[in-house]
Structure formats: structure tokens, C-alpha cells
Amino acid sequence: MNRSARAVSALFLAAAAFAPAHAQDPRLGNPLDAPSRTAILALIDSAKAQGIPTEPLVQKVNQGVAMGVDGPRIVAAVRTLTREMATAHRALGTVASADEIQAAASAVHAGVPAVELGKIKKQSGLRRSLTLPFTVLADIVSRGVPVEAGVNAIRSMVGAGAKDADINNFQRNVSGDIEKGAPPAAAAETRAKAVPNKPDSSKPEQQL
Amino acid sequence: MPEWGGGRTTLEMIVQELQRPVNFDETFERRVMVRVRRLHAERRSRGWIAIASRITHRPGWAAALAASVVAIVTLGLVRSRPDVSAQHGAAPLEPVQFVLVAPTAHSVAVVGDFNDWGLNDSALVATNHEGVWSVTAPVPAGVHRYAFLVNGKQWVADPSAPRATDDDFGMPSSALVVEDSTR
After folding, report:
1. Hey, which of A86, A109, B14, B127 has its CA 20 to 30 A from A16?
2. Strand pairing class (B142-150; B127-129)
3. Could you give the maximum distance between any two Cα atoms of chain B, in Å?
4. Mean pLDDT of the region B11-36
5. Under 8 Å between Cβ of A159 and A165
6. β-sheet bridge partners, residue B142
């Protein structure tokens, strides 16, 4: 192959490589109206430029389409998620994984200040994944646990070296306690104290 | 930057291709000039059809164009395939059992971001064991959102899982964190 032919080949490859991935992604909400689709593509490009994971945005679109939601509402949801992931990304820093960013974004959505998430990340070090702790924090806050109580509970468990299985059980116990009428803050504080004493527990504890 | 086999980026592949040395023999310049003069003469006499005809008779160009078209089609197919593991990078698949107690349900399916929310008939169909519906499926390690779809129309969150707090569409869903068992 001579140099010219090689250059043409390279240009074709480059064009394919640098074309936006979503332009070829058939999963990206084909039923969407044109303005909504354009807005979503712009949001995804913006997220990509900021180093934010884009797969959760694509899946948010799919979720909306599957649920039969109209285009403008899907755009609003994707915009909100983009903003919350950007906030989480800034708070956690570049060491955070895509999963941690997504989980932290859900905590931000629930009302947890991003700065608190950043403190937990700093405290936990690089090796400990905070995907599950942030997911549980979002859950318990959405169930009525005050943000401060929820953050303190998660921080104490992570600081004590609790495993994901323990924090999972904590979530089940707290939600069970709340469903039975316990004050959310009391449930979180009480259950968090028990976790470090039983680091390898595999079953939910008895309800309060 | 997208990556394909062996961790090499496309840009690296392109750069390597362009940097490969081209060997010219001693008569190259003379042959080029002969062809340029002949091409110029033909263009004046027969127009652009002559050039098109000439290009198609050059195996180098034909091979380059064919290779480019194949590359673009292949890359497009690879990048657009709705493959679950591709959506979540190289995350390993871990078996996950989904269970919902729904004694009066006629059908239960599981949809989530691991199967594009059931679009393109990708929902996981649960089987009924006296009102306890369950299905086990491989799910990539990582964080996920999902829900049960009861009777094909009712969205139900998993009561045993953390809530997905960003249920912007007014229908509940759940959060799932799948641990990587290889770590």
C-alpha cells in the first residue's frame, strides 16, 4: 500500500474513531423526538468532556423510554443526573471510579452535600470502594434518616473497616426498623454502632 | 479515546500506520512524472470519467478503500452492539438472583441498566414458584439500577434492596451493587 492510500485508510479510521460513539449507538432512545435527542446528545458530549461516565446517562434515557416517559422529561432527568455526577466527580476527585461517582450522585440527589462525600472518600483511602456505602447512604436518607445521622453512620462504619456485606445488612436493618415505626435517626445510629462488632455477619440482625 | 484489542488506542494504531517507512526505488520519481503527464493529457481529452476509471484499476487504492470500509463497518458493529459486558467495560459477570413475592401476578420480569431496561425484548423473565418469582442472571460487577415489571405494566422496586433515589420518572426502582468476586 503506498503512502497516499495509507493516508486515506488512516483518515477513514480516524473519522470512525473520532465520530461520537452515541451517533452509532442504537440503544440511545430511537423513539425520542428530534429536539430531545439533540439535547441529550449535547449533554452526553458535555459529560464526556468533563470526564464523567456517560453510560449512566444512556441508561437513564433507556429507562425513560422503557417507562413510556416523554422526551422533555427524559432530557430533564439526564440533565439532573449529569449535574449531580459532575458535582460528585468534583467532590471525590480523579481517584474515584465510575461506579463510585454514580453512587455518590445518587446520594447527592437524596440531599447529601457533596463535600461530605468527599470527606468520606478522603478518610477511606484509595483501596476501599465506596460504591456500596454511598448507595446505602442515599437509601437511608431517602427513607427519612437525617443527612447528618446518615453521614455519621456511614463514616463510622467505613472508618471501622466494615465490609460491604455488613453495610448491606445495616441498610436492611435500618429500613426494617423504620417500616416498623422506629425513628429513622435512632435506627441509623443504633444499627451503625453494632456493625463494627460483627464485621463478618452475613444475616440481618433481629429487628429492634 | 476508544480502545480496542491489546489496550492500543485507535490513535496509536493510526500513528503507527502513518509512521511506517515507505521504500521508493530509483525509478520512482520518473514513473510518477510519466503518469502525471499521461493523467493530465487524459483529463483534458476525456474528462473526470477517465480519472475515476484509472483509480479503480489501481489495486493499491482499491485495497486501501476496501480495508477502510471494512474497518469502519467492523468498528461500527463492535461499538454499537448492545452487549452487557461492553456497556460496563471489562467488568466480570457475576450471578445474581432476583426474587419478588407476588402471589397474584401473572408474569414478572426484571429490567435494568444491565439489559437496557428491557428494550429490544431483553427483559429477564422470572419463573413462578407458588407466588415466589425468581430469575438468576449474570450481571456485570458494578452499580446498577433495576426494577420488576409485573404483568407487563406495573413497575415495582425490589423491597429487599436499597432504593434508587433518582427515580425521576415517578416509578420506583432499586439499586444493586454487584461485587467483583475475582478481587
Report:
1. A86
2. unpaired
3. 86
4. 58
5. no
6. B178
* pLDDT bracket for residue A145 (50, 70, 90): very high
* Chain B residues with CB-CB distance to A107 below 8 A: 165
Model confidence over A117-137: pLDDT tens digits?
999 999 887 789 999 999 999
Report the alpha-carbon angle B1-B3-B6, nearest 5: 145
Residue B5 has pLDDT above 60, yes or no: no
Per the CB < 8 Å rule, is B177 touching A164? yes
Chain B window 60-99: which residues touch A at a Cβ cutoff of 8 Å? 60-61, 63-65, 67-69, 71-72, 75-76, 79-80, 82, 87-88
**Fold of domain B85-178:** Immunoglobulin-like (2.60.40)
Q: What is the DSSP letter of B163?
A: B
What digits encode the pLDDT tens for the residues A79-114?
Answer: 999 999 999 999 999 899 999 999 999 999 999 999
Supply A84's cell numbers: 449531580
Of B143, B144, B174, B183, which to mutate for an interface test with A (greatest number of A Cβ within 10 Å)? B143
The answer to whether B121 faces chain A, any CB pair under 8 Å, is no
CB within 8 Å: A65 and B88: no
Rounded to a whole number of angstroms, the distance from the CA of B55 to the nearest CA of chain A is 11
Per-residue HEC secondary structure of B8-59 comes to CEHHHHHHHHHHCCCCCCCCHHHHHHHHHHHHHHHHHHHCHHHHHHHHHCCH
d(CA B38, CA B15): 33
- Secondary structure, 3-state, A83-126: HHHHHHHHHHCCCCCHHHHHHHHHHHHHCCCHHHHHHHHHHHCC
State the helix-helix crossing angle for B28-46 and B48-56, rounded to 10 degrees: 140
Give the ipTM of the model, two decimals please.
0.80
Q: In Å, how far are A158, A198, B49 from A192, measured between CA atoms?
A: 10, 11, 80
